[in-house]
Amino acid sequence: MVIEIPKSTYEAKTQEIARELLAATREKGSFLAQMRDQMRWDDKLLAWAMSNPGLRVQLFRFIDTLPALRSQTEVARHFQEYLGDESVELPAALKGMLNFTNPDSIPGQLAAKTISAAVATLAQKYIAGENLNQALKTIKRLRNQKMAFTLDLLGEAVITEPEAQSYLDRYLQLIEQLTEAAKQWSKVEEIDVADGKSLPLVQVSVKLTAFYSQFDSLDPQGSQNRVCDRIRKLLRRAKELGAAVHFDMEQYEYKDITFSILKDLLMEEEFRSRTDIGVTMQAYLRESQQDCQDLIAWAKQRGNPVTIRLVKGAYWDQETITALQNHWPQPVYNQKAATDANFERITQLLLENHEYVYSAIGSHNVRSQAYAIAIAENLNIPRRCFEMQVLYGMGDQLAKALVNQGHRVRVYAPYGELLPGMAYLIRRLLENTANSSFLRQSLEDRPVEELIAPPKALQEQLNVGTLNVEGFQDNLQPANLQPANLQPTNLQPANLQPSNPFTNAANTDYAQLEAREKAKQALLTVRQQLGKTYLPLINGEYQPTTDTVDSVNPSNPRVVIGKIGLISVEQAELAIEKAKAVFPSWRRTPVSERAGILRKAGDLIEQRRAELSALVCLEVGKPLREADAEVSEAIDFCHYYASEMERLRDGYNYDIAGETNRYVYQPRGIALVISPWNFPMAITTGMTVAALVAGNCTLLKPAENSSVIAGKIAEILVEAGIPKGVFQFVPGKGSTVGAHMVKHPDVHLIAFTGSQEVGCRIYADAAIVQPGQKHLKRVIAEMGGKNGIIVDESADLDQAVAGVVKSAFGYSGQKCSACSRVIVLEPVYESFLKRLVEATRSLNIGPAEAPSTQVGPVIDATARDRIREYVEKGRQEANVALEMPAPETGYFIGPVIFKDISPKATIAQEEIFGPVVAVMAAKNFQEALDIANSTNYGLTGGLYSRTPSHIEQASAELEVGNLYINRNITGSIVSRQPFGGFKMSGVGSKAGGPDYLVQFLEPRTITENIQRQGFAPIEGME
Question: Which of 274, 503, 855, 862 has the greatest number of CB atoms lying within 10 Å of its CB?
Answer without folding.
Answer: 855
